[in-house]
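Anyone up for a design puzzle?
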């Protein structure tokens, strides 16, 4: 199976490619809209700022390619945030594939930002992406902004307040955590993604 991993121009994609290889899938790092359109699945990774990432996507016509993609699409970390309508980070207009606006995490003396480390996730809706994942399982997070709770939220986590840890809207899926850095349980999420029907 070939998985197109979007070359956004921000963040490290090597760990995503290695994780796919371990699961027997071929990850191809690309910023070619034609190749993305033909892929069996797409992963949109990202680390960094939403406005800069969206600027890069628009400059290469990747925003249109992602909006039109009809098969399973997974956003990871910043990639999940880019799936929403807007982000308060730089006032970015995002892909609009999931409703809502991404908001900053409020720093507190006991809760520094970014939120970084292993945090428990609570499943709120059954979904094939989370098959075999127990509510309360720990995943690895690194983020300063968070996705809102709404009808598309299928799992939550909490850091000061609850946020959408996993989102699903038809073929479009998002994980705020890094499955590629979350050990065996993260590998299970990626395996489930690879098993979703096209």
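Challenge accepted. My sequence:
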């Amino acid at each position: 199976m070939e998985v197109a991993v979007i070359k956004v121009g921000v963040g490290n994609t090597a760990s995503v490619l290695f994780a796919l290889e371990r699961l027997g899938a071929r990850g191809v790092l690309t910023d070619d809209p034609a190749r993305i359109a033909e892929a069996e699945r797409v992963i949109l990774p990202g680390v960094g700022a939403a406005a800069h990432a969206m600027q890069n996507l628009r400059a290469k016509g990747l925003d249109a390619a992602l909006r039109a993609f009809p098969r399973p699409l997974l956003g990871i970390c910043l990639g999940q945030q880019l799936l929403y309508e807007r982000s308060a980070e730089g006032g970015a207009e995002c892909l609009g594939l999931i409703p809502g606006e991404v908001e900053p995490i409020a720093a507190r003396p006991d809760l520094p930002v970014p939120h970084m480390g292993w945090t428990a996730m609570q499943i709120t809706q059954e979904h094939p992406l989370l098959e075999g994942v127990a509510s309360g399982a720990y995943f690895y997070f690194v983020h300063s902004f968070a996705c809102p709770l709404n009808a598309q939220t299928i799992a939550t986590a909490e850091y000061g307040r609850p946020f959408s840890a996993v989102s699903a809207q038809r073929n479009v899926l998002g994980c705020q955590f890094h499955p590629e850095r979350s050990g065996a349980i993260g590998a299970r999420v990626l395996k489930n993604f690879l098993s979703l029907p096209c």
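A detail worth pointing out: Helices lie at 14-22, 33-38, 50-59, 62-68, 78-82, 183-195.
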